[in-house]
Amino acid sequence: MHSTKEKNDHCKDDLLLRMGLNDNKAGMEGLDKEKINKIIMEATKGSKYYGNELKKEKQVNQRIENMMQQKAQITSQQLRKAQLQVDRFAMELEQSRNLNNTIVHVDMDAFYAAVEMRDNPELKDKPIAVGSMSMLSTSNYHARRFGVRAAMPGFIAKRLCPQLIIVPPNFDKYRAVSKEVKEILADYDPNFMAMSLDEAYLNITKHLQERRNWPEDKRKYFVKTENAIENDQPGKEVDKLSEHERPISPLLFEDSPPDLQPPLNYEEQNNPQILQNSVVFGTSAEEVVKEIRFRIQQKTTLTASAGIAPNTMLAKVCSDKNKPNGQYQILPNRQAVMDFIKDLPIRKVSGIGKVTEKMLKALGIVTCTELYQQRALLSLLFSETSWHYFLHISLGLGSTHLARDGERKSMSVERTFSEISKAEEQYILCQELCSELAQDLQKEGLKGRTVTIKLKNVNFEVKTRASTVSSVVSTAEEIFAIAKELLRTEIDTDFPKPLRLRLMGVRISGFPNEEDKKHQQRSIIGFLQTGNQALSATGCILEKTDKDQFVKPLEMSHKKSFFDKKRSERKWSHQDSSKCQTVVKQSLQISQPFQVLKKNMSENLETSDNSDNCQIFTCPVCFREQRSISLEAFNKHVDVCLDRPSIRENSKMFSSSNASSTEVSLKENTNHSFSLCEKQHYETHQENVEITSVDCMNLEETRNNSSKAESVDSLRNEYSKEECSRLPSKSCIISLENEDAELLSRQEPLQPCIYQVTAGQALVCPVCNLEQKTSDLTLFNVHVDVCLNKGIIQELKNDKVQSLNQPKDSSRSTGNSSRVQKTVARTKRLGLTAKYSASKKIKPNNPRHTLDIFFK
DNA sequence: GCGGATCAC
DNA sequence: TATGGTGATCCGC
């Protein structure tokens, strides 16, 4: 937690900068700045961490050098022109300046540390920090005198302050306290914006209006004054470092000028046991914020600091001004704003970090005034986004409304550990992270298309590798299937040197937005038919245990434990049990005739997880509830519904849509979606040619209206061709039946159909030609996507056109063989892209399971 | 879309 | 002994 991140003086050393040393009052206790810096340097010098810091510093210096060179080439003519342009923009900004809002930034003082001190009196008067020997989240003000800061490793902090007590964090507790605080904040702005557990913005404009007419009673609060030894005089300077050591007192605002002290009425209350006093707050913004802070302290025994200003940028800076336990206001007039901004170091502004500060400093810019003076130059050296931002700051402008939280854009897990160099362990780790991520995803019901892995080696060098697949994924297995390949590539790249990792992370992004969801309507589905032995009742179950994907925990149990072996084992057993569930589901599925349920996402369906025989399904077409005894009956109903004209019309969109041609939009005006499946054959007969040129052409015609995705597909297909030629292969051909291809090419309405699985063989990836030990179509799809992506990457890496050699043993029809080959891949993609998913094992009487089938 | 960087908390 | 985890954004490919 860096809420109290002290943006500091301009240390020469970045490292010290990061440690955030400042305003150390070299009092009786504590250390002076030089001593602190010396200790930190001794502790850090020679470490790999420091080595990397130096390296990064060099990069930044290089950036600065480049910038300076650019600057040197700027002509005065250019500068004059820029000046005009920038000033025109500045004028517009000035005209749109909005001083009508009252924004408050509330920031709890040394939050985690304060909570710990409150709950453990032993810690009072002692320097403490919350965190671990590796990293501190926050420290109390006592510890700060020794230079102990947030984001500092505990072992260094200990050298600075041997008496330091490091308390492990209790996030549940902080959350609970935070909730209490938020309840108070909501009284002043129900739409307040929480930035973290200890920080929030409020827009109290409306509250202020209403409050003007409030009677005194509504602004009166009672004060507990046990222990009320009042030695604080209004206006008296108090030792702010002991904010938590004072008894609760109505005189909370010792930092305020006397005339701003809340009027105190020491009325006796009815309750004879507790002596209570009351305090009435005024109607001004300042009073409101005092009231807020007062209530926070009454409720939690913790203090908060706050800033009041016409916009968020200024409010944030203000809240830091009189910290701890203080507040500051910038009055809502332009002059007040400009006066405040004048000497403000840019580093104080949220968004200006260490690097930006350094770059601007190289241009002689430290304060906002200088930032404004150099505006023309900045517009020539920085991106538009950046110089616009700079201009806003230098004019004291900022957001005047609190944007409500948008939808999340990514979700990730990452972990640091002591070195792991063995590939097997890295895969296990990766899988574990994927599982965690999948769990988190499930909590929010999210699915994404891009998986990114993050690797940090023991030299602290960070790498990220991403892969985007054609449809959303969310399960641990799906994510791992992608992440694993990314990891494998990295391992292979360095082979035979091992990756010496200290951190690994997995992130997922590319969540469909609302618009996507509308179009998300699942498309034509169903496609593959899988191998008979794989699906023959029990056979597939064992197949499924792909030892590549599910490395047994045993294999690592004797090795160096990374995080916590027990935790790891727990996870594994959990995973095993979920695998068992899969097995059960799969068995059930197999015992059923292979039908795919067409359904919607209606909540009631999703949440009813009972095993009643008679289920209520909502038809995705007519949206009427269907009381069906069986899925078959329900399917029938849907089929009937689908055969109605409206659907036929809608389904024409299939061929005219610009989106992926495999996507069908149905009932676009609703949130409901459903899937169709298409009866298809997936032939895996060796040396069998199942696609005729004619079919391919037809199919291609129908797809020609797509644009970018199309070319990517072509690229991919090129690769797949090349792959095919390289790999010894049992060839794997996928075909659409003639009538299906014709159907597509003629743009006929789609007929609903039943997904049929018949006897077949194990799935063979059409790209790498390797048999996939899975019967899970989703996983299989993911594999193919990954394979295709790899192909592109490889091609780009090679940076050369691959030869068009035909695979010696690949099946082909007559005529333009490369074209045919290409189309084969295309055909495969068509089917593969449509994510039907018989992937999830269907448990017919469990609606949740059946839902999962379509909406992954 | 990818990867490196920067920033906040 | 030992320098975090999560999420967002931007920029230059």
Automatic annotation (TrEMBL):
Leading EC class: transferase
Pfam families assigned: IMS, IMS_C, IMS_HHH
Family matches, as PROSITE patterns: UMUC, ZF_UBZ4
Recorded catalytic activity of this chain's protein: DNA(n) + a 2'-deoxyribonucleoside 5'-triphosphate = DNA(n+1) + diphosphate
Enzyme Commission designation: 2.7.7.7
UmuC domain ranges (all copies): 103-353
Keywords attached to this entry: Coiled coil, DNA damage, DNA repair, DNA replication, DNA synthesis, DNA-binding, DNA-directed DNA polymerase, Magnesium, Metal-binding, Mutator protein, Nucleotidyltransferase, Nucleus, Repeat, Schiff base, Transferase, Zinc, Zinc-finger
Locations listed in the record: Nucleus
SMART domains: ZnF_Rad18
Gene Ontology biological-process entries: cellular response to UV; DNA replication; error-prone translesion synthesis; nucleotide-excision repair, DNA gap filling
Region feature (Disordered): 802-822
Domain of life: Eukaryota
Main location: nucleus
Location of the UBZ4-type domain: 616-646, 762-792
SUPFAM superfamilies the record matches: DNA/RNA polymerases, Lesion bypass DNA polymerase (Y-family), little finger domain
GO molecular function: damaged DNA binding; DNA-directed DNA polymerase activity; zinc ion binding
Gene Ontology cellular component list: nuclear body; site of DNA damage
CC cofactor: Mg(2+); Mn(2+)
Regions annotated as coiled coil: 57-99
Function as written in the Swiss-Prot or TrEMBL entry: DNA polymerase specifically involved in DNA repair. Plays an important role in translesion synthesis, where the normal high-fidelity DNA polymerases cannot proceed and DNA synthesis stalls. Depending on the context, it inserts the correct base, but causes frequent base transitions, transversions and frameshifts. Lacks 3'-5' proofreading exonuclease activity. Forms a Schiff base with 5'-deoxyribose phosphate at abasic sites, but does not have lyase activity.
Protein name: DNA polymerase kappa
Gene name linked to the record: POLK
